[in-house]
Automatic annotation (TrEMBL):
It is a multi-pass membrane protein. Residues 89-293 form the ABC transmembrane type-1 domain. This is Carbohydrate ABC transporter permease. PROSITE patterns: ABC_TM1 (PS50928). The chain crosses the membrane at residues 24-42, 88-112, 124-145, 157-179, 212-229, 274-293. It comes from Paenibacillus solisilvae. InterPro entries: MetI-like, MetI-like_sf. It is found in: Cell membrane.
Amino acid sequence: MSAVVSWLSKVRYSIFGREADKGLLYKVFIYLILIDAAYIYLKPVLHMVTTMVKDGPDLLDPSVNWIPRVIYFGNLQDAWEWLKYPKAFGLSMLLSVSVALLQTCSCAIAGYAFARLKVPFKSVLFFFLLITFIVPLQLTILPNLVFARVLGVLDTVIPIIVPALFGLGLKGALFIIIYRQFFSTQPKELEEAARIDGASVYKVFFRVMMPLAKPAILVVFLFSFVWTWNDFYLPSMYLANAGTPPLSLGISRIASMIRDQAELSGPSIFTEPISMATTFLMILPPIVLYVFAQRWFIEGVERTGLVE
């Protein structure tokens, strides 16, 4: 009898666990939540991929839902040509990498100053920094457009890249706060030891603090890169008359062209596949970047305090 009771106790502990988060039921519950969450995020991507490789018969056949009978790459080819993908990809990459590098450096300097240096009226300056969160971009775009036209740099990438050098805007404010949070958590003994050895403020920042800030640097760079890559508003303002627009603006132009064609000649069965193909070409580079950098990105988010 005691053996049976002991066996039943082991079975109960294996199912329910001695603690609330140790049993089999808890693990099954967690896996169900993770699978549901993954399905919610992956379903649109899977639908996009399967739709863009369907040919005409598969699009007309209601029984073909997820797996097409024939893999058709004509929609991708049309989207590639309509987007002028090599040139548009190069322009988007130039904008995203340039802005990300400049914001990574300039915001690091400002974040270190807010976290460590004794700056006059630092609290007031930080208050003004926080105000940028509530000032919409549409409020300042008109004077910036006028200024860009006066300088003769409209329809170029200069009005988009140069503000990143000074950490302007909502993105700059967010990245400065990320750096400030990270530098505030570092031990002050490191700076004191460097100053005892005769290091100046610049040497302390570049030789001591920046090597420690690799997690924050990676987080800021990836956030800035993806944010700029997906940005439609600024390119639509500054590059509206450019011959080859970036990908975010090119997708909008293709969507307008498809709508115009539908009004003239009626809807086409290839409207959705081509839209899916253009979207896929747009999101593919950030996905590839995240696949290679996800481990360092997650570690950087944890170490910069964004999850606290």
